[in-house]
Specification:
This protein has six helices and four strands. It is α+β, with helices and mostly antiparallel strands. The longest helix has 16 residues.
Length: 159
């Protein structure tokens, strides 16, 4: 599907990794591919749960001089009790371990080219981008959105 899209729209590219390097390394590989092509980058999961309407506000905040804009879920009303409990436990544990992390933020974010240049200096093989971004110390903000129920899992997506 990506090859077909690339033949129709050359700025769409895919990255084939030699092995399963993990979600975080795959994100960084994709960002690295485009590092010289843009002033800012947006990462978003392909499961169609993150509301793309938040992108406009992200771009506005970037245009106002911010380097990182986090996409943050407003609430977890559709999550099961188990999911809510484990998420809360995760964020509490990270806080106790001294990890600065944005509550209810995953990997939906806009980051400037300066951020990507700093990320590429990290030589960590076990990346945890949600923990690294706040460490960089650049000006940041959050954009809040309602998460959409997963659509991609049981559908044939056509472009």
């Amino acid at each position: 599907m990506i090859e077909v899209l690339h033949s129709q729209t050359p700025f769409i590219k895919g990255v084939k990794l030699a092995r399963n390097a993990g979600h975080q390394n795959a994100l960084l590989a994709g960002l690295t591919l485009f590092k010289d092509a843009a002033d800012c980058f947006i990462t978003i999961d392909a499961d169609l749960q993150d509301d793309i309407r938040a992108i406009r506000e992200m771009v506005e905040k970037f245009s106002a001089g911010l380097d990182i804009i986090y996409g943050v879920r407003k609430k977890r009303q559709d999550d099961s009790f188990f999911k809510k409990s484990t998420a809360l436990s995760f964020y509490n544990l990270m806080k106790k371990l001294g990890v600065e992390i944005i509550y209810n933020h995953a990997d939906y974010r806009l980051s400037s080219k300066r951020i990507l240049e700093e990320l590429l200096k990290f030589k960590e093989t076990n990346l945890f981008l949600r923990g690294i971004y706040p460490l960089l110390g650049f000006k940041s903000a959050s954009v809040y959105y309602d998460r959409i129920k997963r659509q991609a899992a049981n559908q044939n997506i056509r472009f």
